[in-house]
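Recall the central idea of this unit: under ordinary conditions, the amino acid sequence of a chain determines the structure it adopts. In this exercise we apply that idea directly, starting from the sequence alone.
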Amino acid sequence: MPDLGNIKKPVKEEMAQFEAYFGRTMQSKIPLLKIILNYIFRRKGKQMRPLLVFLSAKLNGEIEESTYVAATFIELLHTASIVHDDVVDDASERRGALSINALWNSKIAVLVGDYMLTKGLLISIEKNRFDMLEIVSEAVKSMTEGELLQLQKARKLNIREDDYFRIIKGKTAALISACTACGARSVTNNPDTIQLMKDLGESIGIAFQIRDDILDYEGNGLTGKISGNDIKEKKITLPLIHSLEKSTLPEKRHILHIIGNNKKSGSDINEVIRFVSEHGGMEYAALRMNQYRDKALAILDTYQESEVKNSLREFVHYTVSRDK
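Accordingly, the structure predicted from this sequence is:
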């Protein structure tokens, strides 16, 4: 599997500078907010989204301050969305640590998420980057619509494959396409280049989410997710959608009855996982995931060979091969 450390090499110095740049934005004179922002900053993840911003920028030009603005804006938005998602999902943990809503409460978590979102908006205004504000505002709109569509479909358990792709284009791919679009926009005004990079991000984002959904059914003990978590939350994802389409009507009714039950046992979850495995759900999802991987690679093939292009190519492969 590609190594994230190697992927970061072409922008290693910029990523180090970004950490300090981002740290300065995560400050407040309000004591409680200061404590919470420090907690969030110390538990930051792999910073894959800022990495995509810097790689996309360097692929198309020379990194400058506007690239740091873009990466900061994106990371603030991403972190705000995570804090809000944990409230929506009533999640008590995030990356092995207690969530903000678990440590404090949901009201405080919502307010902290709002603070980070508005902080990002203010940065774009202060730096006069209304072009990036437009890109990211469109992503926030898509993310909200995707989340609401998923909640609506989860109630009726009637999600189809086209619904699924509408949801993940909004929930996951919109933000990743904003990363690549903002990265490109920070170094070029060419609309064709910016659109091409937006398309690259969307393909990466869709592949990323399908891989996430496959991991939930693998149950190999190596993933950062609890196996069967989507089943517990009544999320009908691509592996299950395909399996339901390939099943008999009695099988379909039985599996949907399990999914709709608020109190699922371990054996119930194992039965759904077994059902998906027997009906080729994971194999089909992997096939669709690889189609988007290939779309992303085809876009990169339009660029001349370089260390940055190779890192983005490795990033695409990492997206579809990661185990957590």
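The chain has 16 helices and two strands.
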